[in-house]
């Protein structure tokens, strides 16, 4: 693998110039040295950042992005959108699914996402019958990621019920349904099959409290913890008010409150959305060390509500970003709207930061890197030895970025770029995007 020389790179301790990055054949950074000169390797001519992990994706939803923006029903909500989504799954086959995912992952790479956590609940055929290999569609997603060149954490999802308290699933959910044993088998098999591949990791997802039962959660968590005590565990939680009300009716507790009291939620957990929390839940989630998986453009599109970011950050809470329904595949937009939602709500500025001296763009980007890597169970998000060689090169000719001092590049990128600032992308040390074009482009 040739060396890289970055004219300027965002290191854990700040910006450095003339950074020599050595990468081994398997795509790991083995040495990083600032202030170096000649190299026979690749010159990275533009501000270099660690690539952003995308911690929440339902790839198939990319094909319906923009198709649920009209309805004759005046009571339009998340639940109508979900109906449209179920209808969309009536005919979607494995080949189409793999094509959609390959195209999506290609678009993600061009936007600067270098890793994705695929929260994968589409397991069966359109009629609900299982594939001969129950992990067939999971393997399609992994193949798509490898074809596009993005790193993937595949999270097979346990989805067993249609509502709290073990309600029977409805017909629109027939492609999602598995028993805990079937999901544990799938996780075990995939984990074994992809163990040697540094671009692939396997985790577990529980769809939500409404789609599982306490006994099932205990069973699958125990089983995957015996495979790998650090395996990522993701769950949708408290996205919608209706879900909070239903959870209270079922258990007397709110979803995040219930999860934290009844499970050993640790830094390997990721709670997706966690939109509706009390102050106490916000504090407790932050102190658990788990990651909040925030998806601002999807949460806006679905009318979910706003995450209590200031309080969560005050308690040291960790977060990462995801494009979820893929109504937008743009890390800049996720970070920008994470802050803008808070500004609009509080009629204040500069909300997402930990110290008064901190730049917001810098804080948001670094926090997204760290929380995302934690949620995906990857050694990414840092240009440092022992981490994956996942990095992006910004376009130094971008009209907003051109001429900016390095310490202002992230603020400018997050709040002021209106065209894609990501020119080149490397995953595991291999170029996947050059000059804004994916080298294995499937999106055309
Ligand atoms: Zn989701």
Automatic annotation (TrEMBL):
Single GO MF descriptor: formimidoylglutamate deiminase activity
SUPFAM superfamilies per the UniProt record, alphabetical: Composite domain of metallo-dependent hydrolases, Metallo-dependent hydrolases
Cofactor(s) essential for the protein: Zn(2+)
GO CC terms in record: cytosol
UniProtKB keywords: Hydrolase, Metal-binding, Zinc
Positions of the Amidohydrolase-related domain: 48-432
Pfam families named in the record: Amidohydro_1
Domain of life according to the entry: Bacteria
InterPro entries in UniProt: Amidohydro-rel, HutF, Metal-dep_hydrolase_composite, Metal_Hydrolase, Metallo-dep_hydrolases
EC number of the protein: 3.5.3.13
Alphabetical list of NCBIfam families matching this protein: hutF (TIGR02022), PRK09229.1-2 (NF006681), PRK09229.1-5 (NF006684)
Protein's name according to its UniProt entry: Formimidoylglutamate deiminase
Organism: Micavibrio aeruginosavorus
């Amino acid at each position: 693998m040739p060396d890289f020389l970055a004219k300027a790179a965002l290191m854990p301790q700040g910006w450095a110039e003339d950074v020599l990055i050595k990468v081994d054949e398997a795509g790991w950074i083995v040495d990083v040295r600032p202030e170096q000169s000649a190299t026979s390797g690749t010159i990275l001519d533009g501000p270099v950042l660690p690539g952003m992990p995308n911690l929440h994706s339902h790839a198939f939803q990319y094909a319906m992005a923009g198709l649920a923006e009209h309805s004759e029903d005046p009571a339009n909500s998340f639940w109508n959108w979900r109906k449209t989504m179920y209808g969309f799954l009536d005919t979607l086959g494995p080949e189409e699914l793999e094509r959609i995912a390959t195209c999506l992952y290609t678009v993600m790479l061009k936007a600067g996402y270098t890793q994705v956590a695929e929260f994968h609940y589409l397991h069966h055929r359109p009629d609900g019958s299982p594939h001969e290999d129950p992990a067939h569609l999971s393997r399609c997603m992994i193949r798509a990621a490898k074809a596009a060149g993005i790193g993937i954490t595949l999270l097979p999802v346990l989805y067993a019920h249609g509502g709290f308290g073990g309600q029977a699933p409805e017909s629109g959910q027939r492609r999602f349904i598995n028993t805990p044993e079937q999901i544990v088998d799938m996780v075990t098999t995939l984990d074994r099959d992809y163990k040697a591949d540094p671009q692939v990791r396997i985790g577990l997802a529980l769809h939500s409290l409404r789609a599982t039962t306490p006994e099932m959660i205990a069973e699958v968590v125990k089983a995957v913890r015996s495979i790998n005590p650090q395996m990522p565990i993701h769950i949708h939680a408290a996205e919608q008010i209706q879900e909070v009300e239903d959870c209270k009716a079922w258990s007397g507790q709110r979803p995040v409150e219930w999860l934290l009291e009844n499970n050993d939620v640790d830094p390997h957990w990721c709670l997706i959305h966690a939109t509706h929390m009390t102050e106490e839940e916000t504090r407790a989630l932050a102190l658990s060390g788990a990651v909040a998986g925030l998806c601002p453009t999807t949460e806006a599109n679905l009318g979910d509500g706003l995450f209590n970011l200031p309080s969560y950050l005050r308690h040291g809470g960790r977060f990462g970003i995801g494009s979820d329904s893929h109504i937008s595949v743009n890390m800049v937009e996720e970070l920008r709207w994470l802050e803008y939602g808070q500004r609009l709500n509080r009629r204040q500025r500069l909300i997402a930061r930990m110290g008064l001296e901190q730049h917001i763009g810098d804080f948001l980007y670094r926090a997204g890197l760290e929380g995302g890597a934690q949620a995906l169970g990857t050694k990414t998000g840092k240009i440092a030895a022992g981490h994956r060689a996942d990095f992006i090169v910004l376009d130094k000719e971008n009209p907003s970025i051109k001429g900016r001092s390095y310490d202002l590049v992230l603020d400018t990128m997050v709040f002021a770029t209106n065209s894609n600032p990501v020119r080149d992308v490397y995953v595991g040390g291999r170029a996947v995007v050059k000059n804004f074009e994916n080298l294995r482009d499937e999106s055309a």
